[in-house]
Specification:
377 residues; TIM Barrel; four-stranded antiparallel sheet; 17 strands
């Protein structure tokens, strides 16, 4: 009884934080940024950092690994021909911290060339790649342990080598295409006597996209109607979850307690016509992420609010939820400051904890007109 009384007293005396993740949040406002025009000039870099901070930006998300597989740091893991600007990350961190900005470098995890081509890494290791639309493409197979090991080693090296404030993931998904991988093909041949390569034919079918629209692609209708296809999707989802667990373990071994976040397409991918197999709900439930920023790439008020509310309903209460506002993307554009401010207001109404703008290069011209809204959001 005495022990129980003491426990109750402790619970009363010790304040319980509103959110266990509050300490992991990077701030309210962030921007994706390339620094393409500033990285070679200390003066320009300092000026743009100060402009960001004055506008109310708390953290930046610079490109550490691009969709092409190029890494912008002095890496001993990446092949020499995939190392871009060796001094980029060191320079960005130095100048950002000098102006009070946090740095969350963005790693495009599963892309090594993208939808069209395989980069040098996948040409050297073709069994690591996805096969769709008649050829091997620049996405790694999440079922291939060697491919995962390479990507994990890159991220562990990045966070260990530089004084970053966190790590942001992008393209932590399968390509939104109907295709197969070597490891998946071997598994389904053994388990079901079904050859994924033979059921993936070429023919037009409409798939949902990141921005909520339809896209016609040269993929197979018949493959997705095959009885084995749901299991093939589930298999890929499971392998991506294994991958995410490996990333979290390696990153936190390299830098214990470092916050990890991820951009994702959103809750609609769990029920829509997608091949992405991105199970971010499990990543949150497992404690592998500290905050998340689903896509807000919508260009009507109705579609934006629908996506924002759906994501809020699916992100656990108390878990930091940011909305990524696409000022200019492949899906559309917000042409005026008024359009941007309206999405900011809708984000708050939908229960977002913070905002991220894509990208600073597109957003900066609107700063004079949106500055007050940023500061009071």
């Amino acid at each position: 009884m005495l022990r129980m009384i003491c426990l109750v007293v402790l619970l009363i005396l010790v304040p319980i934080p509103q959110s266990a993740f509050a300490g992991k949040m990077p701030g309210k406002m962030g921007v994706y940024v390339s620094f393409r025009d500033e990285i070679g000039s200390p003066y320009k870099l300092r000026q743009v950092m100060r402009q960001m901070k004055a506008a109310g930006i708390d953290f930046i998300l610079p490109s550490a690994k691009s969709t092409s597989g190029i890494v912008n740091w002095d890496s001993s893991v990446a092949p020499p021909d995939l190392i871009g600007n060796k001094t980029y990350m060191d320079t960005v961190v130095k100048y950002a911290h000098a102006e009070g900005l946090k740095v969350y470098p963005v790693v495009c995890v599963c892309t090594e060339g993208g939808d069209s081509v395989c980069n040098a890494l996948l040409k050297k290791n073709p069994s690591w790649s996805f096969y769709f639309e008649g050829g091997r493409r620049g996405y790694i197979d999440p079922g291939n342990p060697d491919a995962r090991k390479y990507e994990v080693a890159l991220m562990a090296e990045l966070v260990a080598k530089y004084d970053v404030d966190g790590l942001s993931l992008d393209y932590m998904r399968c390509p939104n295409r109907v295709g197969y991988t070597d490891t998946g093909r071997a598994y389904f041949l053994k388990k079901h006597k079904v050859d994924l390569a033979k059921i993936v034919d070429i023919g037009p079918v409409s798939l949902d996209t990141e921005g909520g629209k339809k896209a016609l692609a040269d993929v197979s209708t018949s493959a997705r109607q095959n009885p084995v296809w749901p299991e093939w999707q589930s298999w890929r989802r499971q392998k991506l979850n294994v991958f995410m667990g490996e990333i979290e373990a390696a990153v936190h071994k390299a830098k214990p307690g470092l916050p990890i976040s991820s951009y994702c397409w959103g809750a609609h991918t769990y029920v829509g016509n997608f091949e992405t197999c991105q199970d971010w709900k499990t990543w949150i439930a497992k404690g592998w992420l500290d905050w998340i920023n689903p896509s807000g790439y919508r260009y009507t008020d109705e579609s934006f609010m629908t996506a924002a509310k759906l994501n809020r309903e699916n992100v656990p209460k108390g878990f930091p939820y940011y909305i990524t506002i696409g000022v200019l993307t492949s899906h559309g554009a917000l042409p005026t400051a008024g359009d941007i401010k309206r999405q900011m207001t809708m984000s708050k109404d939908a229960g977002a904890d913070g905002l991220i703008f894509f990208t600073w290069e597109s957003f900066r011209k609107f700063v004079p007109e949106t500055g007050d809204a940023l500061k009071v959001w």
